[in-house]
Amino acid sequence: MKYSKQREMIFRAVQSMKTHPTADEIYTVLRAKHPNISLGTVYRNLNVLSEMGKIKKIRISSGSDRFDFRVDDHYHMICQACGEVIDIEIPELDPVLKRLESEGFDITELNLNLRGICNKCRRKKEEAI
């Protein structure tokens, strides 16, 4: 795939945000400095970057997909109250994955999203009671 200045700009934006932004959030950040960029360009290039393995697309069933600059194996907790997406490590899954691979299963993609209430939202709810 040939180099694209806009794709590079979008990739850098995802890297710099350190959160799990939506395409709309990325577009808003980029538009401040590049008013001619279109939302369609952002969506298209995020999908290309995801397909290339440069970023991860986190599919959110009850909202907008999010994008992650971390492409290593890790998992996500999604707060059902505030929508925050939090990176988590689960090293206990490594033996399970190794066992599956030793049995001949070629894992090509791994996505694990846990849904619940984050500590911040849980504390707010407890304080309101």
What does this structure look like?
It is a single chain. This protein has about 130 residues and is α+β, with helices and mostly antiparallel strands. It has 2 domains: about 1-70, Orthogonal Bundle (Arc Repressor Mutant, subunit A); about 70-129, Dna Ligase, domain 1 (2-Layer Sandwich). About 45% of the residues lie in helices and about 15% in strands. It contains 5 helices and 5 strands, in the order H-H-H-E-E-E-E-H-E-H. The strands form 2 sheets. The chain has a 3-stranded mixed beta sheet with strand order 4-3-5, with no helix packed on it. A two-stranded antiparallel ribbon has the order 1-2. A hairpin with a 7-residue loop joins strand 1 (about 55-60) and strand 2. Helix 1 crosses helix 3 (about 40-50) and helix 2 (about 25-35) crosses helix 3. The chain is flat, with a radius of gyration of 17 Å. The model has no long low-confidence stretch (mean pLDDT about 90).
